[in-house]
Design goal:
alpha+beta; 5 helices; elongated; 5 strands; 23% strand
Length: 177
Amino acid sequence: SMQYQVERLEAAKAELNYLVNKYEAYYSNEKLDQQSYQKVYQLNIRIPSANYESFVQDLEQKGLGELQDKQISAQDVSEEYVDLETRLKNKRAYIDRYNGLLKQAKNMEDVLKIQEKIRVLEEEIDRAQGRLRFLSDRVGYGTLNVMLKQEIEQEIVEVEEDTFLDEFKRSIGYGWS
């Protein structure tokens, strides 16, 4: 994640758009929040892993504004990936064995039991394949959360405070009423 204080929000966003296109990245989430005192863009950018370091370096060199916060972290998913692949291989082998047993089944009760085992294994395989697709996406793309903030000048209005005498007169008037 990176957080910038910028002078012109729209110009900073245009520079970021240029980098997103240059490095074949995309916005997975984009939020603009406008308040009376500030405008904030919160952007989640998905960047191909091969371009991630170059993207971050280019972003820092662009000078969008004052870099206020930067946090980069990585998560190693290789162990989980290998574990899932091994489990998938084993479950597919079990399905092959159950299909062999299904061909040899002698009665309907055995067929139903074997089909239930196959159904459970197929659900587990589908779930594991989904997780592998998710992990592959995480490995293929990095996520960078960028926040661009622009402070808005506030007009200061001076308010005259009442003196003690003014307050006293008003109190007497209210009391009289």
